[in-house]
Amino acid sequence: MGDVLKKVPVREQDAKVRATNFEEVCYGYNQEEAMEEAARCINCKNAKCITGCPVAINIPGFIHEVKEGNIEEAYKVIGKSSALPAVCGRVCPQESQCEGVCIRGIKGEPVSIGKLERFVADWAREHGISPEKPASTNGKKVAVIGSGPAGLTCAGDLAKMGYEVTIFEALHEPGGVLVYGIPEFRLPKKGVVAPEIENVKKLGVKIETNVVIGKSVTIDELLNDEGFDAVFIGSGAGLPKFMGIPGENANGVFSANEYLTRSNLMKAFDENYDTPIMIGKKVAVVGGGNVAMDAARTALRLGAEVHIVYRRSEAELPARVEEVHHAKQEGIIFDLLTNPLEILVDDNGWVRGMSCIKMELGEPDESGRRRPVEIKGSEFEIELDTVIMSLGTSPNPLISSTTKGLETNRRKCIVAQEENGATTKEGVYAGGDAVTGAATVILAMGAGKSAAQGIDEFLNGK
Amino acid sequence: MYKIRKAEKLAENIFLMDVEAPRIAKSCEPGQFLIVKMDEKGERIPLTICDYHREDGTVTIVFQIVGASTKKMAELQAGDSFRDVIGPLGQASEFIHEPAAELKEKKYLFVAGGVGTAPVYPQVKWMKENGIAVDVIVGAKTKDLLILEDEMRAVAGNLYITTDDGSYERKGMVTEVIKDLVQNQGKHYDQVVAIGPMIMMKFVCLLTKELGLPTIVSLNPIMVDGTGMCGACRVTVGDQVKFACVDGPEFDGHLVNFDEAMKRQTIYKTQEGRAMLKLQEGDTHHGGCGHCGGDE
Ligand SMILES: Cc1cc2nc3c(=O)[nH]c(=O)nc-3n(C[C@H](O)[C@H](O)[C@H](O)COP(=O)(O)OP(=O)(O)OC[C@H]3O[C@@H](n4cnc5c(N)ncnc54)[C@H](O)[C@@H]3O)c2cc1C
Ligand SMILES: Cc1cc2nc3c(=O)[nH]c(=O)nc-3n(C[C@H](O)[C@H](O)[C@H](O)COP(=O)(O)OP(=O)(O)OC[C@H]3O[C@@H](n4cnc5c(N)ncnc54)[C@H](O)[C@@H]3O)c2cc1C
Ligand code: SF4
Ligand code: SF4
Ligand code: FES
Ligand SMILES: [Mg+2]
């Protein structure tokens, strides 16, 4: 038995080795380790951890089953609240959610809830345990737009209630950000994401890829001509932002979305695939979120020296702590309190560097974080051949602009009620990043769940 | 899977295919494009929708071999399938939204260069179907590379064909024909639509600006998703950055920064070249030539 104040350590791929491959970084617990970690949970009566989980998984409940070695039971407990446990166990920002409020965390390290959840989900997959298709359908049809976590969850829940569900996905693969955004080394596609999508299909959900709602067919056509009784919009927040600084259209400047899509969805990192990707020598990734870390670690694995350029300090980095830690281990260089002013371009239109200015932290802003302000006269240049802009994304207007009566707010997000996902258009529900702006997998799942409830109530009342 | 109903060679390195894609055939309009992905490992290749048959559920594409992916595509036969066909994408040509009465009052000139003839065709056809006879200039390098001549003749009002080498009809560039029509033949146009290689569109726009003729062009920057998600297709139009896949592909040609757009088209030149060499030499190429990077 190790130190009860500390988490049972998790095995990881060596930092030097993994910096050159796309295999998963973290190996996860085996059953012995999981049971040992589960024993650290003190099964609190008033379990704080549950309040920290956006879908309120009965955490002490499933951990208790793990401790007893009843992994299948543990999977059933999680399955009541979450449709994608193998994903969430890997990518949830646990430190600010379930683990952030774990009682164990007061004196020592919190229980490793995410890693336990992951273990249970992986065990279930490896043992061929999957949800069952309902015996009969109720004959009502629901269209789900987008196959990210919000859409998959909403579709899965509705199918369990007996609805006939079709997911329409614009890309050629289902999964949303799980497939095109989050890299293989954090979330294996074949091993983890695909089986979770298969599970949703096993519930009877149909997935039609290559359908761009608003272009191939509109929401009104789905409702009026194709016989759908309700629609859920889970189209995410996929539109990349740029800084608007000079030189940003130079050859060698990419959005993180483009870079990651080439590598993940199109598998450009594998030379057997036809899509090219720029393999930089010296790359700057501008931004400090999860997306920036993913882009940086992808560029590193392709062989570049990579700098994260972020205008605030380390404490304000919005990325998950674990990802920052992994990025540092792998050799990503952090140029903090640094803001780009201009991308320098050579005669042929290629990036040759970036001029930046040093920042210091001033008064707190609306977000409560100290506002970065420029230090006069501190301009300097860095030499580069690639710049990846990772400044956040906003919802794509493709759907809102082609659907009458669907209101959006000034951030272009679809207006929807939090408790049931109802939008301003009857029969149309929405949730996930399309409503909140870029957020997290688990929040998108939670929204998909609430909307499934909302749709069920709406169609039952009909 | 999206089955290829017809595959035809139109000219050296230029191919036409009719592909089953019912949703696209049902909703597409002139000016829009689609994306094809050949197989599991393929790239997403944007191509203009050159014709559509709503009842049949098929769309027509015309493409030219310029690199590895289009070369592979050219080998597909009727009966084969694309793994993915996505669309329709982009905005339809603006004129389809104009009231018919106003449109009939306007004089349109379409200028097509090379494979650009294919994307011009559905627009001219639409005009014809709506009772409007438009002037069309088609330019080709040489007679053998001229495509869709009969089809175009059937829908155009006046058709002016020119070849760079004078091997067929007129000799010279499309810009010379525009000059001739406007300056010598006293023609007036309210709107020019020019589609072809970026360099041709640039020169047409330089000329039409001088002549005071509003000009729309259709841009073909590098794309990945075609839905506004990646920003690869960004182009500068006036003082704004636009995503060609959702804001375009058609833009006011007098505002387009062609020089930037042409540079951006070359981003993957080196890698594309390597891919082509690998394809051409197949298993016989094991590197060592020192040129293609195959030995890296
Ligand atoms: C690189 C990256 C890393 C991230 N890392 C983390 C992390 O570690 N932890 C975490 O919790 N969150 C992370 N996130 C955020 C998280 O992935 C998202 O919040 C979540 O995926 C949102 O889910 P969603 O279902 O709302 O949308 P998405 O996952 O974006 O899915 C939307 C789907 O809808 C499709 N779509 C869009 N428009 C249309 C249309 N018109 N017609 C048909 N289909 C359409 C899209 O193609 C897409 O497949 C990350 C995001 C990115 C980009
Ligand atoms: C909206 C749009 C409509 C188009 N319509 C047609 C058409 O009707 N007929 C036709 O022959 N071609 C068309 N193209 C161009 C066509 O997509 C490219 O020729 C094709 O992608 C080249 O791929 P490759 O692998 O064979 O050649 P490569 O050797 O990879 O590329 C050759 C050149 O093609 C361009 N290109 C490469 N990849 C892409 C990409 N993913 N997206 C866009 N351009 C790329 C680049 O300029 C590149 O230098 C269109 C492009 C766009 C954006
Ligand atoms: S879903 Fe996320 S927040 Fe909830 S228990 Fe699992 S890891 Fe924690
Ligand atoms: S708060 Fe921590 S210790 Fe308490 S039940 Fe939850 S996981 Fe267990
Ligand atoms: S092709 Fe990706 S945004 Fe236009
Ligand atoms: Mg190519």
UniProtKB/TrEMBL annotation, chain A:
Enzyme class, first EC level, given as a word: oxidoreductase
Query: Has UniProt tagged this entry with the keyword Phosphoprotein?
Result: no
Q: What is this protein called?
A: NADPH-dependent glutamate synthase
By its UniProt entry, which PANTHER family does this protein fall under? GLUTAMATE SYNTHASE [NADPH] SMALL CHAIN (PTHR42783), GLUTAMATE SYNTHASE [NADPH] SMALL CHAIN-RELATED (PTHR42783:SF3)
Where does the record place the 4Fe-4S ferredoxin-type domain?
Answer: 32-62
> Which UniProt keywords are present, listed alphabetically?
Oxidoreductase
What GO molecular functions are on record for this protein? Answer: glutamate synthase (NADPH) activity; iron-sulfur cluster binding
EC numbers on record: 1.4.1.13
> Carries keyword Plastid?
no
The chain's coiled-coil residues are none
What organism, scientifically named, is this protein from? Diplocloster agilis
From TrEMBL, chain B:
Q: Which residues bind [2Fe-2S] cluster?
A: C230, C233, C245
Listed Pfam families: DHODB_Fe-S_bind (PF10418), NAD_binding_1 (PF00175)
Q: Does the keyword section mention Transcription?
A: no
Q: Does the keyword Signal apply?
A: no
Q: Which residues bind FAD?
A: V62, F63, Q64
Top-level division of the source organism's lineage: Bacteria
Name a biological process GO annotation: pyrimidine nucleotide biosynthetic process
The FAD-binding FR-type domain covers 1-95
* Ranges annotated as spanning the membrane: none
Family annotation (InterPro entries): Cyt_c3_hydrogenase_gsu, Dihydroorotate_DH_Fe-S-bd, FAD-bd_FR_type, FNR_nucleotide-bd, OxRdtase_FAD/NAD-bd, PyrK_electron_transfer, Riboflavin_synthase-like_b-brl
> What is the free-text note on the cofactor?
Binds 1 [2Fe-2S] cluster per subunit. Binds 1 FAD per subunit.
Keywords annotated in UniProt: 2Fe-2S, FAD, Flavoprotein, Iron, Iron-sulfur, Metal-binding
Q: Which cofactor does it need?
A: [2Fe-2S] cluster; FAD
Molecular function GO terms recorded: 2 iron, 2 sulfur cluster binding; flavin adenine dinucleotide binding; metal ion binding; oxidoreductase activity
Q: Which NCBIfam families match?
A: PRK06222.1 (NF004862)
Protein name, as recorded: Sulfide/dihydroorotate dehydrogenase-like FAD/NAD-binding protein
